[in-house]
Specification:
Elements lengths: L1 E7 L2 E7 L2 E16 L2 E17 L7 E15 L3 E16 L4 E16 L2 E19 L5
Antiparallel strand pairs: 1-3, 2-3, 3-4, 4-5, 5-6, 6-7, 7-8
Length: about 140
């Protein structure tokens, strides 16, 4: 099988104390996959919370972090399913300015979902992910 996934994942967080962030995120995922049965497509929607801890002092050009998260999700294809996703990741961020950083991370998550038509059927997917992306930090004035 071959998979192509496009993902949009904005989040917003607040430093509740130095180095510790709590936040929320939305995610939209569009998947196209090919197998012996032809082309298939499904969309997924996620709403979640996370907490992140930065290990180094604020004034450095870079920092390292760890994060845990929980998502409630809806998957739409031929059937609709609902699920829960738990995960964690570790990573590093390089800051271009006080407000913009390029983030590199490695994570693991477990996504379990129940098919709407048959609530006794549960699908469990485990993922290891490598990610790269920009983070924008708003400063308090």
């Amino acid at each position: 099988s071959k998979y192509s996934i496009i993902e949009i994942n904005p989040d917003i967080g607040y430093f509740i104390k130095d180095k510790l962030v709590i936040g929320s995120h939305l995610k939209f995922e569009n998947t196209l996959y090919k197998d012996s049965g032809g082309n298939n497509h499904h969309s997924s929607y996620f709403l979640g919370i996370y907490t992140r801890y930065y290990f180094l002092k604020q004034k450095k050009f870079y920092n390292v972090f760890s994060q845990i998260n929980y998502d409630y999700n809806i998957h739409k294809s031929d059937l609709t399913s609902y699920g829960h996703k738990y995960g964690f990741k570790i990573g590093a961020v390089a800051f271009f300015t006080n407000s913009v950083g390029l983030e590199f991370s490695l994570g693991y998550d477990i996504n379990s979902k129940k098919i709407k038509r048959d609530s006794s059927y549960t699908n469990k997917i485990e993922n290891i992910k490598a990610s790269i992306g920009f983070h924008f930090y708003l400063e308090k004035k």
